[in-house]
């Protein structure tokens, strides 16, 4: 809770810091802010409280996911070097929007009331519409912003309609009360309730880019400036999936029968579309966009088979995915800047010779995303799959996911092959600031650390 | 002011349900078929307002103020969305001198 207030206030302070002549001081200050928020957030650990007459609950689940999201934002910020160097960029505004959207993301993982879920989703989404179009003179960025905005507000309307139908069926917005009212006295579920539930599922599926509502994601991820794509692929997705899990597994567990077929269909489609789609992509950025769709599918697997361990599996998977994504998008951003906006596979040719460190970081994060042992990604997949198997009767889903993960290794290795086996040609050495290198090394070290000792964080919740 | 819920309740709840569903579907059809970004945006607003009508009706029928409070939240958020959305549309108009969404096809797979 303190983290929400602190982030809002710090965001406003940060806007005023934009008046300062020197832009160099902004980045260290914002990182300091986020570090403070990260620490303050941890103070709520094991201290469950509700706020605003039961609108928000800060429990361990919320604290853990807030921790991931704050840490991820902290790790993303150092890649904003090109905005610091450019004269006419509105750096303070971008940082503030990121801080404000983090407030929305925290609301999404701590909501106890549908109103808070809606407000959280909207705070995150509206901030992302702005950032998607932040490169005003690029037609691609414009198009990404318009696509994201029109489809996002459309699906916001859809989600709202679902929430209202749930309200009509149960007479309350409180998720615990909706959960208590979902099954009638005669053991059947109200038709209006089921309709509302399914429509709400559609709305949230869009926000986490689950198939068949994923069509916007590759285009928007490609057109958005890479710094903000990283934020979308990590923080926004983590918040969306955590909110989805809290809603379905936490509140609507009693009416499982009415939403289970839909969720299974969405999960399977997301896994298939994400992995098969990524194989065919010509550029690394689009490949990573499709891979983020497929990772949404793996995350959703915890949701259809929720049991005592799923929260931990979800947490560990989100953490490993966030670390690997920050590293891979970070390297992509540095390479892309050096090559004049080219983010095809050819841009990575010979990176192993020109920049051994960047190539190593990229390799580790690709291995982690692909789920190769000794990286955090392997244990992420391991925990998710074992929690699904523990639920029984869904072994076929795990088998399908394992096959698709094997396909995933193919497209992740396309990058590795380009870096180490292709000649550099005209590709020159990529320059990187010390801050960015430090973040990449931290991500890589954490990825390997959690791959060697997953027990450090895997049983916290 | 006290009679307003009673006035609302003079019409059966099903009528509100059908009316707002119809409005909502009109909005969906508009979003799917129109080409002008501003018209699409208007259709999205129509969907949000269909939701608002339904919320008010349900709230009056259940004598529960929560639904009406939610309407205020939706209005505030919709206003924020209008700000950002119109800014994006203006930005695009400055670049391509048009608001036709079919002209924006640089991102394809």
UniProtKB/TrEMBL annotation, chain A:
Entry EC number(s): 7.1.1.-
Keyword set, alphabetical order: Cell membrane, Membrane, NAD, Quinone, Translocase, Transmembrane, Transmembrane helix, Transport
Reaction catalysis annotation: a quinone + NADH + 5 H(+)(in) = a quinol + NAD(+) + 4 H(+)(out)
Transmembrane segments: 25-42, 62-79, 91-109, 115-133, 145-167, 192-215, 227-247, 259-280, 287-307, 313-335, 356-376, 382-413, 434-457
InterPro entries: NADH-Q_OxRdtase_suN/2, ND/Mrp_TM
The NADH:quinone oxidoreductase/Mrp antiporter transmembrane domain, residue ranges: 113-407
Record flagged with keyword Membrane: yes
One annotated GO biological process: ATP synthesis coupled electron transport
Location of the protein in the cell: Cell membrane; Endomembrane system; Membrane
A single cellular component GO annotation: plasma membrane
Membrane topology: Multi-pass membrane protein
GO molecular function: NADH dehydrogenase (quinone) (non-electrogenic) activity; NADH dehydrogenase (ubiquinone) activity; quinone binding
PANTHER family in alphabetical order: NADH DEHYDROGENASE
Subunit architecture: NDH-1 is composed of 14 different subunits. Subunits NuoA, H, J, K, L, M, N constitute the membrane sector of the complex.
Function of the protein: NDH-1 shuttles electrons from NADH, via FMN and iron-sulfur (Fe-S) centers, to quinones in the respiratory chain. The immediate electron acceptor for the enzyme in this species is believed to be a menaquinone. Couples the redox reaction to proton translocation (for every two electrons transferred, four hydrogen ions are translocated across the cytoplasmic membrane), and thus conserves the redox energy in a proton gradient.
The protein, known as: NADH-quinone oxidoreductase subunit N
TrEMBL record, chain B:
Catalytic function, reaction form: a quinone + NADH + 5 H(+)(in) = a quinol + NAD(+) + 4 H(+)(out)
Predominant place of localization: membrane
One Pfam family of this chain: Oxidored_q2
Alphabetically ordered keywords of this record: Cell membrane, Membrane, NAD, Oxidoreductase, Quinone, Translocase, Transmembrane, Transmembrane helix, Transport
Biological process per Gene Ontology, one example term: ATP synthesis coupled electron transport
Record's GO cellular component terms: NADH dehydrogenase complex; plasma membrane
Molecular functions per Gene Ontology: NADH dehydrogenase (quinone) (non-electrogenic) activity; quinone binding
Membrane topology reported for the UniProt record: Multi-pass membrane protein
Subunit architecture: NDH-1 is composed of 14 different subunits. Subunits NuoA, H, J, K, L, M, N constitute the membrane sector of the complex.
Biological role stated in the UniProt entry: NDH-1 shuttles electrons from NADH, via FMN and iron-sulfur (Fe-S) centers, to quinones in the respiratory chain. The immediate electron acceptor for the enzyme in this species is believed to be ubiquinone. Couples the redox reaction to proton translocation (for every two electrons transferred, four hydrogen ions are translocated across the cytoplasmic membrane), and thus conserves the redox energy in a proton gradient.
Family per similarity comment: Belongs to the complex I subunit 4L family.
Descriptive protein name: NADH-quinone oxidoreductase subunit K
Gene behind this protein: nuoK
